[in-house]
């Protein structure tokens, strides 16, 4: 498996250029085709406003999307990529990114910044992309700079489908990493015994892929999300891999709030699969 096609969401937030830069770096590393997608959004005005005004509003949205794709092309054209394309989609951000993202190997979006108002996308946009796309999603934090990405990786293990999916989806990262930590946060619940056994099987599976992981069980009495984030800091990791737990559209996260905690406090990029 490799990331042959990488999709990055383009918007008018201050972090978009950093997101594009990181996506371009990954595309160069993996020899990927890079797609920059700029959803226009749709005009949401009462019909009585008049067709001329509605049409003009949609034209302005399209012009803004064109500016985003033009900037994207300028930012990546000297990056040495094998191929890239800029795509304008006349739709709301979520369905636009989900529909194109399902045909890509990796989707790159920005985490929600509570202090920055998105012009088009809803606050839960990153969450819904994770839940609905069916592809691995790389979430870029809303603050901080990242000199490296994917050199020192922490994989948060738990006995669930989402984690198994995330581990498989992360293989291209793990094969390129110089250091991989496979961690299970044991909070003393019953699934702990099963998860410890699975942890050993996962470690053996990674070794068959040529990946040597530092496998650890951490006994903690705090939320697993907090423990994972602390481990990221302690080990100076530059990428966290984990399963995204929740229910589509409702975004009601389970597993002790781990997903919600990580999304709210992430300080490094997070690769999340659902």
Summarize the structure.
This protein is an alpha/beta fold and 274 residues long.
Spatial strand sequence of the major β-sheet = 3-2-1-4-5-10-9-6-7-8
Distance between the termini: 18 Å
CATH C-level label of the largest domain: Alpha Beta
Query: What number of structural domains do the residues give?
Result: 2
In this structure, how is the largest beta sheet organized?
10 strands, mixed
Broad shape: globular
Beta-strand content estimate: 15-25%
- The overall strand count is 10
At the third CATH level, what is the topology name of the largest domain? Rossmann fold
The second-level CATH architecture of the largest domain is 3-Layer(aba) Sandwich
Helix content: 40-55%
Following the backbone from N to C, one meets helices and strands in this order, namely EHEHEHEHEEHHEHEHEHE
Average pLDDT number: 89
Structural summary, described in words:
The two termini are 18 Å apart. Residues 248-256 have low confidence and may be disordered. The chain is globular. The protein folds into two domains: 5-140, Rossmann fold, CATH 3.40.50.620; 152-273, Rossmann fold, CATH 3.40.50. It has helices at residues 16-30, 51-76, 93-101, 125-133, 161-169, 171-176, 191-208, 224-234, 258-265; strands at 5-9, 33-39, 83-89, 106-110, 137-140, 152-157, 179-186, 213-219, 239-243, 270-273. The protein has 274 residues and is an alpha/beta fold.
Question: Layout of SSEs?
Answer:
Layout: E1 5-9, H1 16-30, E2 33-39, H2 51-76, E3 83-89, H3 93-101, E4 106-110, H4 125-133, E5 137-140, E6 152-157, H5 161-169, H6 171-176, E7 179-186, H7 191-208, E8 213-219, H8 224-234, E9 239-243, H9 258-265, E10 270-273
Parallel strand pairs: 1-2, 1-4, 2-3, 4-5, 6-7, 6-9, 7-8, 9-10
Antiparallel strand pairs: 5-10
Helix pairs in contact: 3-4, 8-9
